[in-house]
Amino acid sequence: MNEKRVVSDGVYKIEDDYYTLNLVPGESVYGEKLLQIDDFEYRRWDPNRSKLGAFLIKEKGLPFRHDSEILYLGAGDGTTISHLSDILTEGKIYAVEVAKNPYRNLLDLSKERKNIFPILADAGDPDLYKDMVGKVDIVYQDIAQRNQVGIFLKNLQFLKGERYGLLAVKCRSIDVAKSPEKTVEEAEEKLKDEGHKIHSKTGISRWQKDHTILLIS
Ligand SMILES: C[S@@+](CC[C@H](N)C(=O)[O-])C[C@H]1O[C@@H](n2cnc3c(N)ncnc32)[C@H](O)[C@@H]1O
After folding, report:
1. What is the pLDDT of residue 162?
2. CA of 142 relative to ligand 1 center, distance in Å
3. Looking at ligand 1, which atom is closest to the CA of residue 123?
4. If you count Cβ atoms within 10 Å of the first and of the last residue's Cβ in the chain, which end, N or C, has fewer?
5. Rounded to two decimals, what is the model's pTM?
6. How far is the CA of 13 from the centre of ligand 1 (A)?
7. 211 conformational bin, left if phi > 0, alpha if psi -120 to 50, beta if neither
8. Structural domains present in the chain
């Protein structure tokens, strides 16, 4: 008998791993394990493939709800988004990706998962998609660019009031020569200078080398 516990809306801890309830039963999106319990199928969230999956392990829950609307920058081919799609059963995910190949995979994923709205655009130029994206509860960014903090700041305009931004800071992309600690400190300073509050700073290097996730409002 598997021991199952809800840790946050739509996220389950089963034995030692975290899972979401599969919105498209029978389909594994990136080779993740599927687990059948009673009449339900769960997808294992792999922290080595998803920074948010690593954040989940460290924080033991996520700030998303079944009806959250989110803007996701740096969607890739939808590995992490597939789990958010499982969680946000009555929500929306605006998924911005600049590269055509991953975008094509994202489009395929969105055919079965109707809460994903793929947008092919550069997140550094939010004017390109501001008419497609409404106000959202959370902005999440996972972009390996030198100016990742600047890109994130530009996109916080989409937040509804005092809601949350989650930034996966990829230190080595900002400055390969600087210590990761110093790079994160500088990212925090930039965000504070623009009037944002840092709620948590979560190191996920055990799974994703030199990455830290900042939760801000
Ligand atoms: C680390 S991968 C994303 C992985 C994905 N977030 C996940 O967890 O499944 C980073 C993605 O950001 C995209 N990217 C880089 N610069 C971008 C930009 N300026 N605007 C939008 N996407 C960008 C890359 O093409 C790449 O697919």
Report:
1. 74
2. 6
3. 20
4. N
5. 0.96
6. 27
7. beta
8. 4-44 (3.30.200.20), 51-216 (3.40.50.150)
Give residue 3 CA to ligand 1 midpoint distance, Å. Answer: 35
Q: Is the CB of 96 within 6 Å of ligand 1? A: yes
Quote the CA–CA distance of 14 and 12 in Å, as a whole number.
6
pLDDT, residue 2, reads 77
Q: Mind listing the pLDDT tens digit for each residue in 198-213?
A: 999 999 999 989 999 9
- For ligand 1, atom 4, the nearest C-alpha belongs to 76
Residue whose CA lies nearest to ligand 1 atom number 16: 143
Q: Is 80 exceeded by the pLDDT of residue 148?
A: yes
- Does residue 45 sit in helix, strand or coil? coil
Please compute the mean of the pLDDT values over residues 121-147 and round it to a whole number: 96
pLDDT digits (tens, 9 = 90+) for 61-96: 999 999 999 999 999 999 999 999 999 999 999 999
Atom of ligand 1 nearest to the CA of 81: 9
Residue 143, ligand 1, Cβ within 6 A: yes
CA distances from 127 to 74, 158, 205 (A): 16, 11, 33
Residue 216: is it exposed, middle or buried by C-beta count within 10 angstroms (0-12/13-18/19+)? buried
